[in-house]
């Protein structure tokens, strides 16, 4: 359901400099290759639970049901995208406002995400017509 980075850092290769002419065949020319580490902002389970007002066990259950995306860090702890508290609030509104079970909530969330993508595609197109762009 989610596509997040799998660790706390994402390595993106920088433009390599010209190879070191003094490198011998025994030593690879690594002096010109650098990697810029870009930290990926993630939230811990405790932070997400506190921001959403839910118990951490309920957050874990929603992750196991696939309603909220989470990854595991190097220590095996759950880490979340910064949008996770908003997703949890949306789930709680659907659960309490419409009395939906968790399977129905998953379907409604998928449909709402699809509607958002279609509306974004319409806005990017800049034109409105009687026929939607997916036909």
Explain what the structure shows.
This protein is of the alpha+beta class and 135 residues long. 41% of the residues lie in helices and 13% in strands. It has four helices and five strands. The chain has helices at 45-52, 56-64, 84-98, 102-125, and strands at 9-13, 35-39, 43-44, 71-72, 78-80. Strands 3-5-4 form a three-stranded antiparallel beta sheet. Strands 1-2 form a two-stranded antiparallel sheet. The longest helix is centred in the C-terminal third of the chain and has 24 residues, at 102-125.
Largest sheet strand order: 3-5-4
Order of helices and strands: EEEHHEEHH
Largest sheet: 3 strands, antiparallel
Please tell me the overall pLDDT: 78
CA distance, first residue to last residue: 25 Å
Structural class: alpha+beta
> What percent of residues adopt helix (DSSP H or I)?
40-55%
List segments where confidence is low: pLDDT < 50 over at least 5 consecutive residues: 1-23
SSE topology:
Elements: E1 9-13, E2 35-39, E3 43-44, H1 45-52, H2 56-64, E4 71-72, E5 78-80, H3 84-98, H4 102-125
Helix pairs in contact: 1-3
Give a quick set of tags describing it.
single chain, 135 residues, alpha+beta, 3-stranded antiparallel sheet, two-stranded antiparallel sheet, 5 strands, flat, disordered N terminus
What is this entry, summarized?
This protein is an alpha+beta fold. It contains four helices and five strands, in the order E-E-E-H-H-E-E-H-H. Residues 1-23 have low confidence and may be disordered.
